[in-house]
Amino acid sequence: MNTFPTRQTRRRKFLAVATGVALASVLVACGDAAPGSSNGGSSTAAAPSGPWEFTDDRGKKVSLPQRPTKIVMQVNAAATLVDFGIKPIGVFGPQKTTDGKPSPQAGDLDPNTESVGSEFGEFNLEKYTALKPELLITIMYGEALWYIPEESAATIEEKAPMVAIQLGGVSAAEGIAKFAKLAESLGADLNSADLAKAKQEFETAGAALKAAAAAKPGLKTMVVQGSKDALLVAKPDFFSDLNYFGKQGLDMVAPTGGEAPSWEELSWEQASRYPADLILNDSRDFTLPQAEMAKIPTWAELPAVKAGQLGLWHPETPMSYQKLTPVIRELASVVEKARTDVVS
């Protein structure tokens, strides 16, 4: 049964969380999904061997008598680690879209993996305990443990130690490196032929984006999410992929207003506040479709919209070489075709 809230409810929840993170002085990061293979009941491809230690991005050191194999993961972290060969026994966070399809952030995660929660504030302790986890892995946005209810965080961590990976203020490349380090500690072979190929393809895609951006100096690129009542303009440093795009030389519009570290919320009457030659629209299913946005006069009159210089943004792409590479290639192609004279 689909329990996802409405588009407006999801947006309000996201903005509420982002604003709370902002008050704690933080930054954050957030792919095409496809069903994966069976998880086989084990979290890693390699057998445990000797004591295991890992210090997470909170500075907390986890020490276990042997490498953990029964691991419950936040879904985005799970999808990332699956691409490194590390499989969860359970997940939490959104696994499906509103139409029942795999969520973009679920990547190649086995859709039959046990779920202990799918929404903010939802974490089934009874199911979690029944899985007898040896470790929990989540991601962090500043001080916020993603999809871990604050009121039950201590209880959850009593059941099994927790590792949190900080994605706030880091680029996608840095995010991949963090997960690679964790995956290696859990038994992943970072020198495998498959991973070597995936890394090379990621680096080649990044170089192509860098070349495309260099060939289009002054191409102002704005990233947005539309709703019935507002236009949200993304703050690039907040999102790992946008952070990475900027580091490859893309001239990203950086909003200066609003309390949240993730977005500046504009009324549709303010849609022209930030001039842009190219606009990337949030591709998630709860956002306002481009066909509906086209009916809004202030949007339709934007130079980039009139010039047809629109692309898609995939903000929930897992932090793996395999999932980020096609996203980067897509953007490079869009940039290569874009004109730089749409706005002066």
TrEMBL record:
Residues 1-29 form the signal peptide. One of its GO terms (biological process) is iron coordination entity transport. Residues 35-65, 93-115 are annotated as: Disordered. Residues 60-344 form the Fe/B12 periplasmic-binding domain. InterPro entries: ABC_transptr_periplasmic_BD, Bact_iron-sidero_bind, TAT_signal. Pfam families: Peripla_BP_2 (PF01497). Keywords: Signal, Transport. One of its GO terms (cellular component) is outer membrane-bounded periplasmic space. Its main location: other. It is found in: Cell envelope. Residues 35-51 have a biased composition (Low complexity). Belongs to the bacterial solute-binding protein 8 family. This is Iron complex transport system substrate-binding protein. It comes from Actinokineospora iranica.
